[in-house]
C-alpha cells in the first residue's frame, strides 16, 4: 500500500490480488489440453496409462511477471525518494492516471497527504504488457532469487517469441534495477519510455515454444496412494530457451 508520502510500504504483505476481469480469471484463461501438447511435453502426462492424465485434462496455467514485482516496487520508491516527481507522474500515466490529476503530487507527498485514488499498486503489479501466461508449476521461478536483477524472468529467451517483446522487457528491467541501485535518472527515463511504447500491449498468451517439462521432476506417478489409487504429481515446467 502507499503511505501519505507516496512510498509503497509492505508491498508483498499481501501483494495486490490478481484482477478478476479480462484478461485475468478463469473465464479469460486459455485451455491447454494435455493431448494438444508436443510430444516432448505430452509424454510426461502418461496419457492412456492407468495413473495418467486424461486427454481432455488441461495444464494449470498462471500469470508470470517478466519484470518482477520487487523491481516494480523498488523503481517507484526510488522515483519518490529522489523526488523525481515529473517522471513519477509520467510513470503513473502508464496505468491510466492523467498527469493533470497528479499536478499536486510533490506538494501532497511533501505534506504526507497523498492518496492513491486510482488503485495504482494493483495496476503496477498486473499491467498486462509485463505478463506471460505459462504453467503454474515451475522449477525456475526467479522470484526465489535474492538479487533484484535475477528477479527478471525469461532472460534467456530469444526475440522470436512475442515479436521480440521479452528481450526488450528484460532490458527495461535491467534499467530499472540500475536506477534503483545508483539513482541514474537516464536509466529511469529509458525504462519509462519503453513501457510507454508498449502501454497498450496485451498479455503474452500461452506459447509452447517457451516451455518444456523439467524431467528432473516427477510427472504423473505410479506410486500407490494411501487409501487406494495412485499419487498424482503434476509435471513441473521450465523455460525452454532453445526453441524446437
Fill in the keyword field for this structure.
244 residues, mainly alpha, two-stranded antiparallel ribbon, 7 helices, 4 strands, 7% strand
Structure description:
With 244 residues, the chain is mostly helical. The protein has one domain (26-239). The protein has 7 helices and 4 strands. The chain has a two-stranded antiparallel ribbon. The protein has a two-stranded antiparallel sheet with strand order 3-4. Helix 2 crosses helix 6. The model has no long low-confidence stretch (mean pLDDT 91).
Topology diagram in text:
Blueprint: H1 39-42, E1 61-65, H2 69-81, H3 85-93, H4 105-111, H5 120-125, E2 131-135, H6 165-182, H7 185-197, E3 211-213, E4 237-239
Antiparallel strand pairs: 1-2, 3-4
Helix pairs in contact: 2-6, 6-7
Count the beta strands.
4
Write down the Rg.
Answer: 21 Å
- Please list the strands of the largest sheet in the order they lie side by side: 1-2
Q: What global shape is seen? A: elongated
Uncertain stretches: none
Question: How many helical elements?
Answer: 7
Task: Please report which band the strand proportion falls in: under 5%, 5-15%, 15-25%, 25-35%, 35-45% or over 45%.
Answer: 5-15%
Order of helices and strands: HEHHHHEHHEE
Mean pLDDT: 91
Please give the domain count.
1
Distance between the termini: 43 Å
**What is the percent of helical residues?**
25-40%
